[in-house]
Amino acid sequence: MTNLLKKALSVCMAATMLVTASCITVLAEDTQDIAPAADEVKNEAKVKFTIGEPDENGIFTAKLSLHNLKFVSLQFSFNFNKDVIKAVDAEGNPTDDFNEFAVCNPAKVEGTNQELTQVKTTVSNAIGVFGIISYIKVDTEDRLIHVDENGCVLYEFRFKKVGEGNNFGFALADNPVTGNGKDAIVYDGRDLSFTFEFIYPEESKEQSSSNYYPDVPDTNHVATPEELKRERRKGTVVLQVNNYAVSVEGIIKWVDKDNKNVVPYIENDRTMVPLRFISETFGADVEWIPETRTIEIALEDTKITMQLDNRDYQINGETKAMDTVPVIREDRTFVPIRFVSEALEKAVYWNGTTGVVVVAPLNNPWDDTDSLSQELMTQTLLALKWLGDEAYSHLKN
Question: Where in this chain does the entry annotate a coiled-coil region (predicted)?
Fold first, then answer.
């Protein structure tokens, strides 16, 4: 799944920049109308979450639409009042299955419908949260979807009123990665801002209003070459088969300073990478339980459990399978690269010619087609080759 995002975005975009949002809460008489109001600022980039009126059974639909935007991928997470409303399927039954709860509409590109690819979707009635990460691959000249002021409804979500009052509690969830700001992201390759609106039906007088005003980037600022390089390296780890040197956001480090033999390797056509190093580099806590030969990884709200010599592993209790078993080598646990992609939710790039593995965030996957990435990779390979021994010797001492 992560590899799908990486491949598509590497084709769609040469450089990915974060689009920040401001969020306001409004009331509208016609909740199904997503077209711009007469007093709206023309060409203002907006994302709207339009809540419909509950029917006689309490069921209603909320629509997520984009306006005056160019985009290739998006990411949103929302909270809702689980005591008043529930996410439901087409029959009105509560569900935690996103495909039963939501409808993803295609985007129209040059007269044809283009489907979004879902990278990650979630919904939980127990917590009162749902979210999406998706992208779309198009063959337009700038490789972006163009949406005019009339808007494009990309998602429709089903809810049912089950409690007293009309406070549905819709709000943007906090960004789970940075901990700062809201999880409201649209990528279009440029640095710009947009406004997020929650639009409630006129009858919903009990809705609690909230405002979200993050820092808006300086749109007149022209990024320097060094700034572009830092942005490209952000959250990115570069490893190489049979090389103990590693690049973390452009800084040369070591996989294991006490053992130069702890290196990525290939076995049975599987690329194996050191689990603890990868996990801890991305902020996870790793615990080894020798009695059961079990490894536990805690990353934010995700808990991963696995055993040596067992392909099955659990993510928050859900069992999945690796394409080969985790093994001990040089007294360190190694896992297949696919595990990093699926369990740690990272974009993974593999170059069989150079033996390079690039692990990056989903929203900043490695793109080997643009000149900046090619330049950085050339520099990184030279650093891994020529500076590895020096870095190891210096850090050991």
Answer: none
The neighbour count for residue 225, using CB atoms within 10 Å, is 9
Please give the distance of CA 59 from its chain centroid, rounded to a whole number: 30
Q: Which residues pair with residue 113 across a beta bridge?
A: 108
Residue 55 falls in which region: left (phi positive, over 0), alpha (psi -120 to 50) or beta = beta
Q: Is the pTM of this model over 0.90?
A: no
Q: Token digits for 335?
A: 């896992």
Q: Token pair of 376, please? A: 């950085």
Picking from 74, 71, 125, the residue whose alpha carbon sits closest to that of residue 96 is 125
- pLDDT tens, position by position, 3-15: 444 444 443 433 3
Q: What is the pLDDT of residues 245-268, one digit of tens each?
A: 899 988 888 888 888 899 999 998
Spell out the alpha helix ranges (H) of 250-297. 275-281
User: Which tops the pLDDT comparison, 339 or 393?
Assistant: 339
Give me the torsion for CA of 352, 358, 361, 365, rounded to 10°.
-50
- The first and second tokens of residue 211, run together, are 């405002």
Domains and CATH numbers, the chain: 18-201 (2.60.40.680), 228-396 (3.30.457.10)
Does the pLDDT at position 99 exceed 70? yes
